[in-house]
Amino acid sequence: MAIGRLWEVDAARGIAIVMMLISNLVLDLAVFLAWNIDISSGFWLYFARATAALFILVAGISLTLSHSRLERKTYRKYLFRGLRIFSWGLAITAVTMVLFPGNTIWFGILHLIGFSIIISYPLLRTRPLLAFLLGLAIILVGFNAESIPISSPWLLWLGLAPGSFTSFDYVPVFPWFGCMLIGISLGNVLYTKGERLFKIGNFSSNLAIKTLAALGRNSLLIYLVHQPILVGALFLLASA
Hints:
Layout: H1 7-31, H2 42-69, H3 75-99, H4 109-119, H5 128-145, H6 173-190, H7 207-217, H8 219-239
Helix pairs in contact: 1-2, 1-7, 1-8, 2-6, 3-4, 5-6
């Protein structure tokens, strides 16, 4: 018998979508309309990081759910899924390279999620403790790596960036792959064999939850189209 979607996972992804819309609206106001908003430190910096962390964490949980529900478990499915998402990241790189060369997205959240799907397959099987410890280690190494001086841009994807580097979306392997592994660990612990192991009320018919879950189920589409819509709307309002 097929197992249905888990409303709390979709809703959590939907919350991340709402947070992303808020975070990127603030970014657009600061960058394109020159509003006096500090996005490089303080609240909005940590809000953006919390948004990325939630997205990646839920992606890790979702990976374990899809893996546990597959009758025929093959790496090929995850390889092509990861390449597809990574390819969307490359498309965003190409667009931002043309439109915003000073803030090109070389390794953003789609690059990271696509890459993570490809390399995390061995840990999708029940190895929650190993995934958690490895994820924690990657996070700790990543935060310490930020202070390492480097002049070459070729290690951007790992988290080693020149001091002059700026980007609208920078989510390197260290520390963010650690969030994916912790999500995989949580997925294996909380949803063994794709089924919920904890008790929770059924709020799937609640209007707010239904809205969040719908956003969560369409997260990739919303991610791809939201910035052109936001920026276009802001310029229309400004010109009016």
